[in-house]
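Hi V.,

Quick status before I head out on leave. The structure for the redesign project is tokenized and pasted below; the design run finished overnight.
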């Protein structure tokens, strides 16, 4: 009898999670979510939806108030969070990259999680990987340039290469295309698309306000509004006009062309007819 395919490992499990602040109400309410190896998720929602809070849980940077979160098989609250974070790639737009360092040196710091290079810790394999990742991001020609002379778009791709240095199984990107012009955005999305073939087991989560900023290889989406899940699952079933309208509270039509998404307003603001759901679609 033919054996079935082994299920993909689960890299992130969020189970009925609430996050609240004293006097501030719920930031997240009964959120459940699972991310498996090789999946590429979009995390979408309006300002104040709870996207940053949910990403901080996925990045092992805060604990839930109730419910359970497991990242790479480790339950938050029962593991050294600092140690766990070394296995999670985080692309932080606020990361300070010293202007005087070369691009290659900045990428090398990802191997040690330091701001300044620790030169005695980097061997030939590290240098080879740094150059390989820069080539993957379309930045091989920048390796010897001081990062202070790079454009915003170039810096964004350098940050991704740095986050990939320790070969994390899970990569989290918080609005990587924010503030980029058209050319820089397209170069960034093309670089992200290369990741799927470079490491087929890598799972990614891209936070965005805009469907147009999603990489074409996005496989799944989670729509979040007012701290609750509106819809979650494969993009074909999740990024619909009805679900996106409910999430953002305005009537939109969603289209797709050559793997890229587009949302346009259809007229009157939409009432969130179904309201945020209290269950996860997978």
């Amino acid at each position: 009898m033919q054996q079935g395919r082994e299920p993909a490992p689960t890299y992130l499990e969020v189970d009925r999670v609430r996050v609240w602040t004293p006097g501030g109400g719920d930031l997240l309410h009964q959120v459940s979510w699972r991310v498996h190896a090789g999946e590429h998720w979009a995390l979408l929602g309006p300002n104040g939806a709870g996207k940053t809070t949910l990403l901080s849980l996925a990045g092992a940077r805060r604990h839930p108030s109730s419910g359970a979160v497991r990242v790479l098989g480790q339950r938050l609250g029962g593991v050294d969070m600092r140690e766990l974070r070394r296995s999670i790639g985080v692309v932080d737009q606020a990361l300070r990259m010293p202007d005087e360092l070369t691009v290659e040196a900045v990428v090398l710091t990802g191997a040690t999680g330091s701001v300044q290079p620790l030169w005695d810790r980097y061997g030939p394999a590290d240098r080879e990987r740094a150059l390989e990742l820069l080539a993957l991001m379309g930045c091989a020609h920048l390796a010897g340039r001081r990062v202070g002379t790079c454009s915003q778009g170039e810096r964004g791709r350098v940050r991704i290469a740095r986050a990939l240095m320790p070969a994390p199984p899970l990569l989290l990107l918080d609005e990587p295309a924010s503030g980029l012009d058209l050319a820089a955005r397209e170069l960034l999305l093309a670089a992200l698309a290369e990741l799927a073939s470079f490491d087929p087991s890598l799972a990614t989560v891209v936070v965005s306000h805009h469907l147009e900023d999603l990489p074409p290889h996005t496989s799944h989406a989670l729509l979040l509004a007012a701290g609750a899940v509106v819809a979650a699952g494969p993009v074909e079933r999740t990024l619909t006009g009805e679900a996106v309208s409910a999430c953002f509270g305005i009537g939109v039509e969603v289209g797709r062309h050559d793997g890229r998404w587009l949302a346009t307003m259809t007229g009157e603001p939409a009432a969130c007819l179904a309201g945020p759901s209290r269950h996860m679609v997978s």
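Above is the designed sequence. The CA atoms of residues 28 and 227 lie 4 Å apart.

G. will cover questions while I'm gone.

Best,
W.
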